Amino acid sequence: MSFSSKIFALLCVCSQLLFSQSKEIQFLTGKDAEHTKEWDFWINSGRKSGSWSKINVPSHWEQQGFGSYNYGRDYVTYGKNFKFHDETGLYEHKFTVPNSWKGKTINIVFEGSMTDTEVKINGKLAGEIHEGAFYEFKYDISDKIQFGKENILEVKVSKMSADKSVNNAERLADYWILGGIFRPVYLEANSKEHISSTSIDAKADGTFRSDIHLKGINSVNSLKVEIFDVKNNLVGESQVTIQKGDTLKQIQFSVKNPKLWTAETPNLYKAKFTLNKNKKTISHTEEKFGFRTIEIRKGDGIYINGTKIKMKGINRHVWWPETGRAVTENVDLMDVQLIKEMNMNAVRCAHYPPNKSFLKICDSLGLYVLDELAGWQKKYSTGVGKKLVKEMVARDANHPSIIFWSNGNEGGHNFDLDSEYAKYDLSNRPVIHAHHKPGNAFNGIDCNHYEDYYSTKKILEGENIYMPTEFLHAQDDGGGGTSLADYWELHWNSKKGAGGFLWAFVDEGLVRTDFNNQIDVNAINAPDGVLGPHREKEGSFYAIREIYSPVKIDLKTLPNNFNGNIPVENRYHFTNLKECQFEWKLIKFKTPFSSESGFDIIKTGKAESPNIKPTEKGNVNLNLPTNWKENEGLLLTATDSFGKEIYTWTWKLKSNDEISKRFSTSLIKTNQVSVVENDSLFILKSDEKEFAIGKKDGLLKSVIVDKKGKKMTFKNGPVFVNGTMELSSIKSFAEEQNQLIEVNYKNGNKIIWKLNPNGILELNYEYSLSGDYPFSGVSFDYPENYVINSKWLGKGPYHVWKNRTQGQTYNVWQNLKNSTRTGFSPWIYPEFKGYFDDVSWLQLDTAEGKITVGTKEEKMFVRLFDFYGIYGAEGYPKLPSGNISFLDAIPPLGTVLAFNINDKTESLGLESEPNHLNGTFKRTLYFYFGLPDLGDENKQFTMPKENILTD
Fold first, then answer.
1. What are the GO BP annotations of this UniProt entry (predicted)?
2. Mind listing the domains of the chain with CATH numbers?
3. Nearest-CA neighbor of 177 among 185, 168, 189, 186?
4. What is the pTM of this model?
């Protein structure tokens, strides 16, 4: 059974435990968005309106083909002409209840309905209309049920609320606004005397307290509480007497030496509450919980169990493209696993409480959770807000993963509600305000959004703890992992830095049933994720994974005196690195004309796990074999105590000079070379190839690759991407068996073309720069539509920016041609176009044949075709000339917010500054056009396909 399957099975068991013998459950809808039931449905406007039909529940009616779509910011688009999409849906469903339920208390429970919900049972109102979309509510319908007969449930749901503050808080928001019963509805039957709910406070010292809420107590009873560990061993218990009329009983006792809950050690216990009458159990319930203590030490930091922690968090909408906010446990599980795969330890539930299953999984797998009351820039009224705080906190209070309550977002704070949370949360968690304006710190924590690197630095020097609940907005390809390394170092090294929450987890793309099931991200409003709608991994995903790795290794290249020791820092809060595993691999990379990508594993071994305590530094000794230098690459994989990979680092062991020589010596066929010229061209020739160089500019004009005159359209280079190219001199001459053309320019730049007998066209160039530049190097032209795929030895497989090189590893990668624009359909990743890092050689497979380019020097970036990081009025940032570039420097990328304020990318940190270049830059490129005759060397290109490093 896979790890995911085991967790899912465990959660199913946990769900069943909640529905114990004293509480019987009957689902009226399906249990989730995948397992639905048909109800009768009518809607007043939009698609399929005005007549009764069927709808699957739970769901959003838009996704079932009813009504019309609207995004919460439609009022911005339509201005004064905007009208609320005030659709009303009527649901009907017939059900029966067992005769055994007679005499019981029967509630109908709605886990979530958008938005105002009126419920009738057999024509009678179940209670007052519920206002607010994201909250669980219930009605006691014991006196309205008919036994032995069919019962009729009628539900009227209005997409927009009759309460203006509800619309302001959650309907006019920067996200999709959907209608309908989107979470399960069920009946629960309890004995007349029963435990209605519990609230738990379990501290790190083993103190266990609970408020047990009771209903219908009409005689003396006893109440027993038992605590069981993960192996179901009884570790503590207590019993109290219940008097007639009691509605609340408090209980307290201690458990010795409990295993504590943290995001790194998600140790859970089970509390069993049993109500006995005459030694017979009449009601019981069970809750999972964890022992842990939360402290906010003002002017210092956030502490869990006495240890300061820093949040590596992200904002997450409840979302699936086909079903909107109606999701499944599998979606919740997938999301928690992906967040943890990024080496994050925290999640903010933006901008409303999530599914119950999501919180259970956070408890089980370990994430710190910020649970948020809706309020997107505007607040609930006090009357409605008090009810919704109670519903949210009463449902969620026993989850150890929840560290904070958030009282609304970005100005959506009703200060009258701040004191409400503690009424229903026995552990009295801290309340924060997730705001977007300076000077709004609350409870000693400043959560201000979207500060730049330098304003962050200033806030960290102030009096408050700083924990931005949104930062580095990830619209398009910006933000997310871009610039994150600088921000993270600031928070890690600052006393008052508490980390923060990136915006956001997924692109909120919705399958539009009114547009042939196309996925719509509402233009620039919703493509804000580091993952696509179906959890397609963008480049930032991998950058975050490396930056947030709790095993921190900064070694970019191996030193000449490398002896197998690698410096490492432990950035766990609670885990010693001796609890992790370290495995190395020595590898040989596939070569350019192999039909395969990847590498072959030559030897593997395990390193001794170093004894490095949290936040301390040390070394991991790999104990490599003495002949390790004979290999081409080294991989090191760190695995955590649960067997999950933390990260794999890679190092190239051979220089580009060695790699290029290996390729050139494998070319066994040679031809005599010569040069001819006419009025406009020098033509470098061999028996098979011709390269025409313009006399006026020194640029490549045409390429012929065989005796039949077959052309390849690679031309117009090398154009220096900075400055002018005014010719000073050009000459042709021979050097041994090679033919050369030397070109000098008036600004001191220089290029030399050299045709070798083995068919390699060599290009040597140099240029001088002094100042700040977005990029530097040279470019060529090639028709993009001729290209089929690219293969390269270097970092990959995703493209990079100057301030987001993290997360990419050495390998022979291969990407099929695509035109993906990050954040938009069709979400094919990795992107084919972009800047690619640390390339040793590149091969383009084209309709005209293969084009292979290598470099002698280290650290070359390759630019492939036209692309942009952020889409505004114009593409951004500006690209070099040409469409294939070989670069020594590439630009940083900002965020959509920086872009909108006249490109303040440099304010995002040191890595986000332009390239400060001063000096002369030299590089040698080797071009080979077509397929070479490699003789016996072909054997090295047909190794088995196993052991390919994948993403």
1. lactose catabolic process
2. 19-190 (2.60.120.260), 195-289 (2.60.40.10), 310-547 (3.20.20.80), 551-652 (2.60.40.10), 778-850+858-921 (no CATH)
3. 168
4. 0.94
